[in-house]
Amino acid sequence: MECEHKHISYKNELNLSEEELIAESETILLALKKRRSLRFFSDKTFPAEVIENVVMAASTAPSGANKQPWTFCIVSSPELKKQIRIAAEEEERISYASRMSEEWKEDLKPFATNWQKPFLEIAPYLIIVFKRVYEFEIGGKKHQNYYVNESVGLACGFLLSAIHKLGLVALTHTPSPMDFLTKILERPSNERPYLLIPVGYPADDATVPDIQRKSKKDVLIWYQH
Question: What is the pLDDT of residues 45-64, one digit of tens each?
Fold first, then answer.
């Protein structure tokens, strides 16, 4: 069946041997095993172009029908960061007081986290990821996007990997509800806040919880002949 849309040829630029594939895959594994979510940021800044490049790297992620249903808002304004912190802490304070179950709070104890979020002002950049549930066509008609949550989740994975590769750190912060981000950043009605990601260098005295990731036998199941 012929496709009416133009296709272009694809070439494998690496073309690694089997030995090179194994070695490269081990390098990637070892690098990503060092990635951690961090809550202690330095206020040391770096060029805005770096943030733009990692966002555009994230935007290469696959998406349903190639709709690319995401918007990445980058906040470096101290005034806006303060507004976001105040609003986020208010939602978090309510959550810790009444929304979260005791089981949930117990599971959070190893992370020593609470409703206070100073990193929202300390980190030099905040990336607020919005999912675009539909698009507006000419005349205001709505056009559906597909597999929006899955697509935006993939883009955020690309984003975190790119940030880590540069020696920077990030945190996937999800104050709930997050409607305040739509209001503060004046986003249109077709966008919904998905993730709030502080990005920067780790503080000199930064720590992370001593936790373990699941082993290969817990996450990988082979089906072979």
Answer: 999 999 999 999 999 999 99
Contact (CB, 8 A) for 135 and 143: yes
Q: How many helices (H) and strands (E) does the chain have?
A: 8, 6
What global pTM score does this model have? Answer: 0.94
Neighbouring CB atoms inside 10 A of 88's CB total 23
| Domain 39-203: CATH architecture, name and number where available | 3-Layer(aba) Sandwich (3.40)
The domain ranges of the chain are: 39-203
Closest CA to 175 of 196, 157, 148: 196
In angstroms, rounded to a whole number, what is the distance separating the alpha carbons of residues 95 and 175?
9
- Distance CA(25)–CA(31), nearest Å, equals 10
CB burial string 162-185: b at 16+ within 10 A, e below:
bbbeeebbbbebebeebebbbebb
